[in-house]
Amino acid sequence: MKRNVIIATLAAAGVAGGAVLAGTAFADDGDDRKPASRTLNAGADDAGSDDRDDRGGSKDGKGNGGSWISAEQAVGQALKAEPGHAYKLELEDDDRVWEVDILTEDGEWRRVDVARKGGEVVSSRTDDDDDRNERTAKQVRAVLADAKTSLADAARIANERVPGTIDEIDLEKRGTVWKVDFEKVDGRDDDDDVELRVNVESGKATVHDDDRDDDRDDRDDRDDDRDDRDDD
């Protein structure tokens, strides 16, 4: 699972001077800010059945009496705890936690952990990437405030289009596309890499399959070899 924060570059339409965002974190100053880290509703996870639930890893939002929450539901839970703009989601902690990155309404960059089983918000902490600042916060708001397809929408669309377990969703291509990576796709080997891109404006989803791309590359290589023989 990827631990590095993917840098999402956003060009906010209407932002003066064509300002761009490099996905970043916010300086923590001022005495009235929220604590850097706090625990919310801890201990809600039912340890007795975690292993059984983890084996059903591809069943986002299905089964287990409704306790196995989807990526879309995790975003909703995180935004209840930290209202604002959710701009990234990642599956963490041995697939037990949805990690949601949010720019809050009061301008803080927060990282909220939501238990995958039960949907409890277990912690919220400051996302302290040194690159984040006031300017990038304004640019995130400008992009996501006008986005017709939110992070939660992208998660829902992805689950409808591809049966499997979402690993990560992030903004790419200057804030015009939600890129969805899957940890596992039902009926495929674990090492098969499938990526879905959801257009922020239209909600249209396009599947990018490494297997198909590799096959296309192989065909191109064979064509090149044939051309070389013809030249000889």
Automatic annotation (TrEMBL):
Domain PepSY: 69-110, 150-204
Keyword Cell inner membrane included in the entry's annotation: no
Keyword Signal: yes
Compositional bias (Basic and acidic residues): 49-62
Taxonomic source organism: Streptomyces tardus
Biased composition (Acidic residues): 211-232
Keywords, alphabetical: Signal
Segments of this protein annotated with the region Disordered: 25-76, 188-232
Signal peptide: 1-27
Lineage: Bacteria, Bacillati, Actinomycetota, Actinomycetes, Kitasatosporales
Protein's UniProt name: PepSY domain-containing protein
